[in-house]
């Protein structure tokens, strides 16, 4: 059970709720804060002075004063009209992350909703009710409007939902079955439910979690490639990394040393390497520099995510002194920038992995192995086309690295004339994360084949990785249907079992 209070959730909390179905509860402190600021909203609602979001229209229609008897309809119309998404359905874990973050903002007490709104949001999350949200609809400014509106609509008993991954059904039916009373919105509440960066931030939290694990897997892949190519570990020495003191670089190099430590293959090849090879190629030798920059970028993204997790993003907002004020905190630029930054470094890490894989397949560069690691080159093609698959993914990742946040498109009759497109950045980053995992899976699968073809005992860490791979993919031999082995290797990266096997053998990686 995760308690959501007036303080921020952590990245780990968000992932636990979104991905692992962790239950939530709203703290009594948060309920008190929500009730206190609601009193201020109701005071302003009874005033003759127009207040944006309480007694006026929205966006370009903010200059229209709305009479008392129309304000419930105003909030309902807002949610209904903004639930205008289109396209493929967004993944359940993304929507649960978005909902957890919107609930967290409600619990700050800065949005002016009633306590029942937060309680209902928590009840829907705990019942496993996930609104159906469509791919397109957010410009990343004024919040992730359409995605959040689809979620708000479900709280009202309208729209479509899935319950625990089941079939799509009417939200009203799901709420009734769960014993949840649909909300009837009052002043400010519809706006408070849709005005936030929760969709892009939720996807950032999920991506950071996945990319941290993929960073370690990239180091495992590098270690296996060094071993499979009979390279050298000397360039990964800690004192050499300290000459350029980027923390991520030192961590990446340490992981490579740990995974390939005491390799009989490398020890046997050491003198020959010194005499004939001298240096490994950049894709091997410079792996810590690239993987380290990737890690340091992840740390920066986590810093931004932490700040955003501590934010109360709404417009207008109930300030600490009680005033209700319009603001620009809903603009997604800070989150959008790091989403794009992560797409750039993800593409580059994958690009280096693909280059290492390619070295295994060329007899002019693979130091004594067969062409394409084929059993009988010419008759067999080995991993030739697996590298094509990598190359196609890397090309796609480079396209996905084009920043969304450098673009903007005006909306709402030019009232909302600059937007972040952070939701778009988040959506393409999810594709990038999946692409990197697939590229690394192919490098690991190829490196495992190469090490096996050396017919010598591997290091403890690389050996553990190879053993994990051999549970889902056969060793060297004549050509066979390769796609299922690639997909199965992707699976043991995604479920964590390959990394767990390595860490069981050599200890926790950095």
TrEMBL record:
Pathway annotation = Amino-acid degradation; L-histidine degradation into L-glutamate; N-formimidoyl-L-glutamate from L-histidine: step 1/3
Provenance organism? Corynebacterium tapiri
Enzyme Commission no = 4.3.1.3
**Top enzyme class of this protein?**
lyase
- Which Gene Ontology terms describe the biological processes this protein takes part in? L-histidine catabolic process to glutamate and formamide; L-histidine catabolic process to glutamate and formate
Q: Which UniProt keywords apply?
A: Histidine metabolism, Lyase
Entry's localization field: Cytoplasm
Q: Which reaction does it catalyse?
A: L-histidine = trans-urocanate + NH4(+)
Tell me one GO molecular function of this protein.
Answer: histidine ammonia-lyase activity
Respond yes or no to whether keyword Lyase is given for this record: yes
Recorded GO cellular component terms are:
cytoplasm
Q: Which InterPro entries match?
A: Aromatic_Lyase (IPR001106), Fumarase/histidase_N (IPR024083), HutH (IPR005921), L-Aspartase-like (IPR008948), Phe/His_NH3-lyase_AS (IPR022313)
Does Lyase count among this protein's keywords? yes
**Protein name according to UniProt:** Histidine ammonia-lyase
Q: Which family does it belong to?
A: Belongs to the PAL/histidase family.
Highest rank taxon of the organism: Bacteria
């Amino acid at each position: 059970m995760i308690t959501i209070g007036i303080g921020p959730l952590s990245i780990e909390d968000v992932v636990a709720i979104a991905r692992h179905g962790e239950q939530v509860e709203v703290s009594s402190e948060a309920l008190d804060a929500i009730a206190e600021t609601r009193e201020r909203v109701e005071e302003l609602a009874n005033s003759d002075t127009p207040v944006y979001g309480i007694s006026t229209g929205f966006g370009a229609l903010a200059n229209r004063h709305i009479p008392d008897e129309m304000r419930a309809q105003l909030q309902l119309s807002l949610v209904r009209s903004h639930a205008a998404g289109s396209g493929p359905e967004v993944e359940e874990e993304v929507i649960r992350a978005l909902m957890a973050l919107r609930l967290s903002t409600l619990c700050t007490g800065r949005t002016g909703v009633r306590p029942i709104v937060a309680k209902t949001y928590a009840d829907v999350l705990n019942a496993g009710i996930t609104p159906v949200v469509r791919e397109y609809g957010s410009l990343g400014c004024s919040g992730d409007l359409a995605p959040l509106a689809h979620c708000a609509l479900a709280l009202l008993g309208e729209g479509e939902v899935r319950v625990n991954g089941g079939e799509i059904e009417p939200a009203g039916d799901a709420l009734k079955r769960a014993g949840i009373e649909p909300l009837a919105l009052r002043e400010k509440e519809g706006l408070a439910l849709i005005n936030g960066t929760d969709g892009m931030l939720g996807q950032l939290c999920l991506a950071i979690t996945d990319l941290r694990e993929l960073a370690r897997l990239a180091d495992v892949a590098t270690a296996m490639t060094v071993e499979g190519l009979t390279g050298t570990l000397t360039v990964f020495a800690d004192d050499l990394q300290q000459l350029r003191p980027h923390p991520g670089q030192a961590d990446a190099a340490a992981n490579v040393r740990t995974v390939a430590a005491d390799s009989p293959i490398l020890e046997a090849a050491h003198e020959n390497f010194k005499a004939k090879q001298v240096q490994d190629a950049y894709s091997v030798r410079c792996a810590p520099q690239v993987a380290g920059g990737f890690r340091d970028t992840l740390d920066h993204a986590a810093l931004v995510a932490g700040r955003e997790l501590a934010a109360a993003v709404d417009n207008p907002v109930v300030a600490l002194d009680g005033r209700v004020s319009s603001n620009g905190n809903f603009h997604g630029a800070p989150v959008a920038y790091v989403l794009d930054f992560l797409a750039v470094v993800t593409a580059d890490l994958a690009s280096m992995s693909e280059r290492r894989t390619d070295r295994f397949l060329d007899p002019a560069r693979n130091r004594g192995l067969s062409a394409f690691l084929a059993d009988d080159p010419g008759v067999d093609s080995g991993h030739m086309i697996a590298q094509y698959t990598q190359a196609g993914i890397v090309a796609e990742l480079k396209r996905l690295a084009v920043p969304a946040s450098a673009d903007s498109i005006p909306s709402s009759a030019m009232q909302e004339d600059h937007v972040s497109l952070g939701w778009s950045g988040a959506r393409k980053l999810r594709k990038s994360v999946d692409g990197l995992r697939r590229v690394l899976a192919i490098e690991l699968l190829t490196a495992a084949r190469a090490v096996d073809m050396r017919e010598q005992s591997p290091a403890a860490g690389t050996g553990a990785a190879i053993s994990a791979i051999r549970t889902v993919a056969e060793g060297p031999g004549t050509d066979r249907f390769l796609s299922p082995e690639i997909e199965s290797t992707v699976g043991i990266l995604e479920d964590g079992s390959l990394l767990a096997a390595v860490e069981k053998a050599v200890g926790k990686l950095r």
